[in-house]
């Protein structure tokens, strides 16, 4: 009679060990926030080692350090907790890559403005601008004599370009935002042919900017930012189309910072429209019925 009990006890640990083995094969949850910073760092290193896209490592480190420091302080003050550094790291490294200035202070100021916008410019508890997009556009407008934005091409190294596009696609796929990048790229290419027809420039020259570092960071990290994109999948695609169309007109006006400016205007407007629609739906749901048997009073 004791033998079955022994078999039962020996089988229980084996049954419990199987789920642990399955959990061990998946990526731990705490690793996920670090994947985008790792990928964008690889993009930075690949671009700088191949084509020297950075002004200097010290300026980029200053931008990263400022972004993380300001995030920690403001997060502790306003949210009563220490924020995860992954988001501010991405903001800082984006500033370090995209901003151009012979001085150090623009890198620190741009990162500080970017992070501060998350806490100062909020609607119903949500920031509506992509932080690095806001900071860089603010610097280009307010300190145009001291700064510029990266707009050079990577070069003719197809291997580096493929690596960057693969890494970027992995990031947005994991964030469930690949449809945003895909929609934007399709619209950009289609509108490039239209722009070439209007201006008389070769279509190759109109499409080529999308292979540059500014556009790659833009379409993989800015326009797909989960915190500043609308909720629905069709809505995000519509926003991507709107950004591409507004950028089309900015580029017709010879603006080399067209994608940054387009997202600066379209992104917040889309979120405000979504908030307005949500508010109307919430009021409609709370409003008492005005017709029907239960509403009839005598």
What features would you highlight for this structure?
298 residues, mainly alpha, 2 domains, two-stranded antiparallel sheet, 12 helices, disordered N terminus
Q: Short description, anyone?
A:
With 298 residues, the protein is an all-alpha fold. It is built from 12 helices and 4 strands, in the order H-H-H-H-E-H-E-E-H-E-H-H-H-H-H-H.
Explain the overall architecture.
The chain is an all-alpha fold and 298 residues long. It has two domains: 54-149, no CATH class; 158-278, no CATH class. It contains twelve helices and four strands, in the order ααααβαββαβαααααα. It has helices at 2-25, 35-51, 57-79, 85-98, 105-120, 131-142, 158-174, 178-199, 203-207, 213-222, 233-252, 258-286, and strands at residues 99-100, 122-123, 126-127, 148-149. The strands form two sheets. It has a two-stranded antiparallel sheet with strand order 1-4. A two-stranded antiparallel sheet has the order 2-3. Strand 2 (122-123) and strand 3 (126-127) form a beta hairpin. The protein is globular and about 60 Å long. Mean pLDDT is 82; it is low at 1-25.
Structural class, by secondary structure, is: mainly alpha
Q: What distance separates the N and C termini?
A: 78 Å
Oligomer: single chain
Order of helices and strands: HHHHEHEEHEHHHHHH
Order of neighbouring strands in the sheet with most strands: 1-4
- Using only C-alpha atoms, the radius of gyration works out to 24 Å
Unreliable segments (pLDDT under 50, ≥5 consecutive)? 1-25
Helical fraction: over 70%
Tell me the total number of β-strands.
Answer: 4
Q: Can you tell me the number of structural domains? A: 2
Number of helices: 12
What integer is the average pLDDT? 82
Shape: globular
Q: Report the portion of residues in β strands.
A: under 5%
């Amino acid at each position: 009679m004791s033998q079955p009990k022994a078999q039962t006890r020996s089988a229980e640990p084996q049954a419990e060990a199987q789920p642990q083995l399955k959990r061990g094969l998946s990526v731990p949850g705490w690793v996920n926030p670090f994947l985008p910073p790792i990928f964008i760092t690889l993009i930075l290193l690949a671009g700088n080692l191949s084509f020297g896209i950075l002004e200097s490592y010290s300026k980029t480190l200053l931008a990263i350090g400022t972004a993380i420091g300001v995030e920690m302080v403001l997060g502790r003050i306003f949210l009563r907790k220490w924020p995860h550094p992954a988001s501010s790291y991405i903001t800082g490294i984006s500033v370090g890559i995209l901003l151009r200035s012979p001085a150090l202070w623009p890198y620190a100021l741009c990162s500080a403005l970017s992070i501060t916008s998350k806490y100062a410019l909020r609607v119903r508890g949500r920031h509506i601008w992509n932080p690095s997009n806001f900071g860089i556009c603010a610097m280009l407008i307010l300190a145009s004599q001291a700064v510029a934005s990266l707009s050079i091409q990577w070069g003719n190294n197809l291997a580096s370009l493929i690596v960057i596009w693969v890494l970027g696609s992995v990031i947005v796929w994991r964030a469930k935002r690949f449809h945003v990048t895909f929609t934007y790229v399709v619209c950009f290419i289609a509108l490039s042919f239209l722009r070439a027809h209007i201006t008389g420039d070769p279509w190759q020259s109109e499409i080529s900017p999308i292979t540059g570092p500014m556009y790659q960071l833009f379409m993989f990290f800015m326009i797909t930012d989960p915190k500043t994109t609308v909720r629905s999948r069709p809505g995000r695609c519509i926003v991507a189309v709107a950004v591409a169309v507004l950028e089309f007109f900015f580029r017709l006006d010879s603006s080399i910072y067209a994608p940054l400016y387009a997202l600066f205007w379209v992104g917040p407007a889309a979120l405000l429209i979504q908030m307005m629609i949500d508010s109307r739906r919430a009021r409609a749901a709370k409003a008492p019925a005005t017709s029907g048997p239960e509403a009839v009073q005598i």
